Amino acid sequence: MLDENLPTYLLKASKDKPKQNSTFLYSQFGNDFEPAYTLRHLDPEQPASRNRYAVAIYDAHNPDVLFAEVLLIPDWTQPTLSQDEIRRNGGVTPAPEAILPTEFAIQLYNPDQQIVVKHKPASFASTATWEFEMPTQSFRTPSHSHLDRSQSDPTISEFTPKLALKWKKDGRLSKDLGCYLSGRALNPDGTKNKHKEPDITVAILKNLKEVTMYEPNMARVELEDLKGFEVTLLLGAVVIRDVYFGSMKETFNIAGRRKSSASSPLNITPLIASPAPQPIRRTTDPSAREPRVPPTDPRTQWELDQETERLRREAAREEHERKQREEAEQRQIKQMLEAEEQERRRRQAEVDAETERLRRVYGQQHGVPTTQRPQPQRHSQSGLGGSAYAQQTGLGGPYMTGAASQSTFLQPNQAKLKHKSSIFSFRRNSDQETSKLAKKKSAMW
Predict the structure, then answer these.
(1) Measured distance CA(98)–CA(246) in Å, rounded
(2) Which residue has the higher pLDDT, 443 or 72?
(3) What segments bear the compositional bias annotation Basic and acidic residues (predicted)?
(4) CA angle 354, 357, 360 (to 5 degrees)
């Protein structure tokens, strides 16, 4: 602390969201620090906060009271046409880089006015400065005249006198800044060559987080809106610290280039894949979806182009892999079919060989007719008649006594045996048929 008797504002980050919220603590005359103002930055996680910087200052006791805010959208470099740069960047056009802004505007409310702060870089003989002007009259003079009410506000009038102020670095390597009120010109023509009052120190920024108001010189600041002047100093110091002393990517929420998923391991899909589970459809409220921010700067357009190109390459790679998998599956199916055909042919050849072998072994026996053993003849003992018949049949020679004459296939009726008859011929075939006794006849007649 520079002096405990001077009004001092200490910037302290919030514990919950250090990058989004912070508080200005006020102390004077050695008292404890108490919240005086609240700073709110853009949420880095929101798509609407990309490639821009915004900060607003609120009342610490009444969060709905907004004092001032700053919105800063940087300019971007033009895409390079150098093939060497594109080749060094892996064949991709380098991303547009944010250009450090040369000015920013602080929008004050109640009364509404805009304070433009212009940045002058450091030179060989001087350090960096941030200059701005504030009107001496900010409130309209009370009047019953309709003509006075119809006139413009003093803050935007060109005839309203303004005080010139500037933030200036204490040294090239120092991070401390001082806010000075430019001295008035003493020449009648208004030039500032020789006759000029020295600059007056009105505020000091220590370690980029502690703002001390130099109260003894505040009486020489001829401004109506001292509250607006205090808010301008605090908010201007925060913007200078974030934009000109911080990282451009973190300040403007510039997202880095997304890494391509080509280097990620590929998931090999099996040929016979299991049925994929049905995805669960989740219904979301359309109002709860994140708003789509239109491309308002070259950086966003470049990111969209790169993402489109990446998705196109990813789709082409997936299509190529799908074709390779289909070709491999077709080749495997073809090999399986060929193997099955070869196995079928081998089995058929074995069957044919076995059939041929069996035909050679058993084929001739089917062509030779089978002969049966002749059955022995049973001669009847019926007396002379029977022997005479046998002698007559025996005179036929060997042609009638062959195996063919006694075959059962050639003489199927001879297979039946004749019924025996008694010597005296008491029982004949007719007796069996009629079952009656015949009249006894004489043996002589």
Answers:
(1) 13
(2) 72
(3) 282-292, 307-332, 342-359
(4) 150
Of 28, 1, 24, 56, the closest CA to residue 218 belongs to 28
Q: Answer whether 154's CB lies under 8 Å from 241's CB.
A: no
Cα–Cα distances in Å, from 172 out to 99, 122, 336? 21, 8, 79
CA distances from 269 to 264, 319, 331, 335 (A): 15, 13, 16, 19
Coil, helix or strand for 367?
coil
Q: Higher model confidence: residue 364 or residue 11? A: 11
DSSP secondary structure, 249-290, as one string? HHHTTPPPPPPPGGGSPP-PPPSSPPPPPPPPP----GGGSP
pLDDT at 188 over 60: no
- With CA atoms as reference, report the closest residue to 229 among 327, 313, 311, 155: 155
Lowest mean pLDDT among 179-183, 238-242, 319-323, 388-392: 388-392
The pLDDT of residue 88 is above 50: yes
| Angle at alpha carbon of residue 275, lines to 328 and 266, rounded to 5° | 50
Which among 30, 50, 8, 32 has a CA at the least distance from the CA of 297?
Answer: 50
Neighbouring residues of 304: CB distance < 8 A, sequence distance ≥ 6: 295
Per-residue pLDDT reduced to its tens digit, 331-375:
999 999 999 999 999 999 999 999 999 999 987 555 555 555 555
Instruction: Tell me what percent of the residues of the chain surpass a pLDDT of 90.
Output: 34
CB neighbourhood size of 180 (10 A): 21
- According to the model, what pLDDT value does residue 436 have? 55
Q: What pLDDT is recorded for position 37?
A: 95
Q: What is the pLDDT of residue 416?
A: 47
| Cα(153)–Cα(225) distance, integer angstroms | 14
Q: Return the half-sphere exposure (C-beta side, CA atoms, 13 A cut-off) of residue 104.
A: 26
Tokens of 96: 């547009």
Of the candidates 297, 296, 298, 314, which has an alpha carbon nearest to the alpha carbon of residue 258? 314
Alpha-carbon dihedral angle through residues 363, 364, 365, 369, given to the nearest 10 degrees: 130
What is the four-CA torsion angle of 188, 190, 191, 196, rounded to 10 degrees?
A: 80
Q: How far apart are CA 70 and CA 242, in angstroms?
A: 12
**Which tokens is 138 given?**
């900010």
Residue 303's Cβ-count burial label (10 Å; 0-12, 13-18, 19+) is buried
Distance CA 284, CA 235 (A): 40
